[in-house]
Amino acid sequence: MALSPLHWRRYSAEFLGTALLTFAVLGSIQQQTATPFVAALVLMLAVYILGPVSGAHVNPAVTVGLWSIKKIQTPEALAYIAAQLVGAVTAQFLFLYLVGGLPQVPLTAGWGIAFAEALGAFLLLLGIMAVVTGKVHRAAGGLVVGCSLLLGILLASLMSNGVLNPAVAVGIRSLSFSPYYPFISGIEYLIGPFIGAVAAVYLYQWMTQES
Fold first, then answer.
1. Which pTM does this prediction carry?
2. How far is CA 190 from the centre of its chain?
């Protein structure tokens, strides 16, 4: 079945938002500026600019979290994740082409990193759920989501790179694929955000249910 223009607009928005976020994070790392604040600002703007189109997930963990409580259907969720990953990789290659190299991101390992990434994503999704469920005024949605990401990154950064986004982790090379063991170095950056996101949406849903 052919996709409608509405679907293509949504996927294009997810592609663009994730690409811009990844490119901005790469640039802030390269310039050694305040990466948490840069990421939060970009996400806040994405919510206001792209939110009306796609919801501005720009993060596979957000998509999976909302999918787990049926806020988005499976085919749409898969397409969102594909668009996000392609956007992140596109930003990586564009940055490499324009700048001539990628900043070095420490490749760390350990389940403490997975916990940190889960905690950060947990805080991010609490803010997103407040917006999604209408507990926050629509005009303040971007600010709430941006602040939630900022807090999540700052806390996660105590133990990890504070990425909280599997697509961005791929884009900035917080993880790497190897034909040797371990097959994926930094897999905690993939696992942690998904766990934190799903835990947050279910907890928030339980806390705010009327009965």
1. 0.91
2. 11
Give the tokens for residue 55. 């919801």
CATH topology of domain 5-208: Glycerol uptake facilitator protein (1.20.1080)
- In the numeric block, the tokens 């993939």 are attached to 190
Convert the pLDDT of each residue in 86-111 to its tens digit: 999 999 999 999 998 888 887 766 78
Determine contact, residues 17/80, Cβ cutoff 8 Å.
Answer: no
Ranges of each domain in the chain: 5-208
| Tokens matching residue 80 | 């969102």
Question: Which tokens sit at 164?
Answer: 């909280």
**Residue range 121-148, pLDDT digits in tens:** 999 999 999 999 999 988 899 999 999 9
3-state SS, one letter per residue, for the chain: CCCCHHHHHHHHHHHHHHHHHHHHHHHHHHHCCCHHHHHHHHHHHHHHHHHHHHCCCCCHHHHHHHHHCCCCCHHHHHHHHHHHHHHHHHHHHHHHHHHCCCCCCCCCCCHHHHHHHHHHHHHHHHHHHHHHCCCCCHHHHHHHHHHHHHHHHHHHCCCCCCCCCHHHHHHCCCCEECCCCCCEECCHHHHHHHHHHHHHHHHHHHHHCCC
